[in-house]
Amino acid sequence: MDKNAAYPVAMETLKSEQMLAPETQLRQVKYLNNLIEQDHRNIKRITKPMLGFKSFPVLDEP
Fold first, then answer.
1. Domain extent listing, the chain
2. How far apart are CA 39 and CA 22, in angstroms?
3. Contact 10, 4 (CB under 8 A)
4. Cα separations in angstroms, 6 against 11, 23, 28, 32
5. How far apart are CA 34 and CA 41, in angstroms?
6. Cβ atoms 11, 24 nearer than 8 A
7. Which stretches of the chain score pLDDT less than 50?
8. Can you list the positions of beta strands (E) in 1-62?
9. Residues 22 and 15 sit within 8 Å (Cβ to Cβ)
10. Distance, C-alpha 17 to centroid of its chain
11. What's the pLDDT score for residue 15?
12. From its phi and psi, is residue 22 left (phi > 0), alpha (psi between -120 and 50) or beta?
């Protein structure tokens, strides 16, 4: 998560309402998910060109 000041307050509220386990930790470290992002970088590189404009075949109606 980013370093928004509302997150720690929300986490403590959720813990006090027992919606989160007490041992749940909030880690506000920039680029914490960088390994995950790098893992699927090649897939994003392959699929990005396929997201552009496409032509559709014209179907003849009977």
1. 6-50
2. 31
3. no
4. 9, 19, 12, 19
5. 10
6. yes
7. none
8. none
9. yes
10. 25
11. 93
12. alpha
